[in-house]
Amino acid sequence: MIVVDASACVHALQAERPDPDLVRTLQKAGSLHAPTLLDIEFLSALRGLVMSGKLPIDRADEGR
């Protein structure tokens, strides 16, 4: 069983070059478990990246 957090999801889905080991591990897991507030934390992390200029808004929109 793998429990993911928002930072792992943001990195796997939005990074310019996602960590191949992380992506492979998440793909092999079959099922992932996450905290109830993962979606809110994920969107908050995307917002923070956009506000700091580290992520273009169009890339963040892809993650919504």
Task: Report on this structure.
There is one protein chain. It contains four helices and two strands. The radius of gyration is 12 Å and the shape is globular. The protein has a single domain (2-63), classed as 5'-nuclease (Rossmann fold), CATH 3.40.50.1010. The chain has helices at residues 6-14, 20-28, 38-51, 57-63; strands at residues 2-3, 32-33. Strands 1-2 form a two-stranded parallel ribbon. By secondary structure, it is mainly α. The model has no long low-confidence stretch (mean pLDDT 86).
Order of helices and strands: EHHEHH
At CATH level 2, the architecture is: 3-Layer(aba) Sandwich
The number of helical segments is 4
End-to-end separation: 25 Å
Strand ordering within the main sheet: 1-2
CATH fourth-tier homologous superfamily: 5'-nuclease
| Mean pLDDT reading | 86
| Global Rg | 12 Å
What is the 3D shape?
globular
β-sheet strand percentage:
5-15%
Oligomeric grouping of the chains? single chain
Low-confidence stretches: none
CATH topology value: Rossmann fold
Tally of individual domains: 1
Features:
mainly alpha; 64 residues; Rossmann fold; 4 helices
Walk me through the topology:
Blueprint: E1 2-3, H1 6-14, H2 20-28, E2 32-33, H3 38-51, H4 57-63
Parallel strand pairs: 1-2
